[in-house]
Design a protein that fits this description.
Layout: H1 3-14, H2 24-37, E1 41-47, E2 51-58, E3 64-66, H3 71-75, E4 82-84, H4 97-100, E5 107-114, E6 120-128, H5 138-158
Antiparallel strand pairs: 1-2, 1-6, 2-3, 4-5, 5-6
Helix pairs in contact: 2-5
Length: 164
């Protein structure tokens, strides 16, 4: 594990939010994202060493998945929004258990959650069981990024670490 990844994981741990209660503020954001983008699933996903854990989820019962299955693990490697129009056609994901089995992911779009200190600790993502034929417009990408920004501000505001 490189130093940058160690620092990213420390920034995530410092927030003290993993395995904590859901936040109504984040549930409103994921619900809104699901409706705005016409996606059956919307998540605030935090990526640690071994898993992606969902601080908020709309349309999915699972609380976490293994990191090696996480589309969000790829999305946090860039500052840009990551979009996959049809996961069955993407070599990174076509054999992924989340594509070949429930929830049968076809479409994914995720915007990184970037902390005040600049670490990408997770994503706000939208997922659907139907592939898309066209990429999201720049305006909608910006909107997803703005909702991701609001999500990380809520996480940092509500973090027990922020009151220390």
């Amino acid at each position: 594990m490189d130093t940058t990844e160690q620092d990213r994981l420390q920034a995530l741990r410092d927030l003290n939010v993993l395995d904590t209660e859901r936040l109504p503020e984040l549930d409103r954001i994921t619900g809104l994202a699901s409706r705005i983008f016409g996606a059956s699933i919307a998540l605030v996903s935090l990526v640690d060493e071994n898993r992606q854990w969902f601080k908020s989820r709309c349309g999915l019962d699972a609380q976490e998945t293994p990191r090696e299955w996480a589309f969000c693990d790829y999305a946090i490697r860039s500052t840009d929004v990551m979009e996959v129009l049809d996961a069955r056609e993407d070599s990174r994901f076509r054999d992924n258990p989340l594509v070949t089995g429930p929830p049968y992911i076809r479409y994914y779009c995720g915007a990184p959650l970037v902390t005040r200190s600049g670490y990408r600790i997770g994503t706000l993502c939208i997922i659907d069981g139907a592939p898309r034929t066209e990429s999201m417009s720049q305006g909608k990408r910006l909107l997803l990024s703005e909702l991701a920004g609001q999500s990380i501000r809520e996480i940092e505001r509500m973090s027990p670490a922020s009151s220390q």
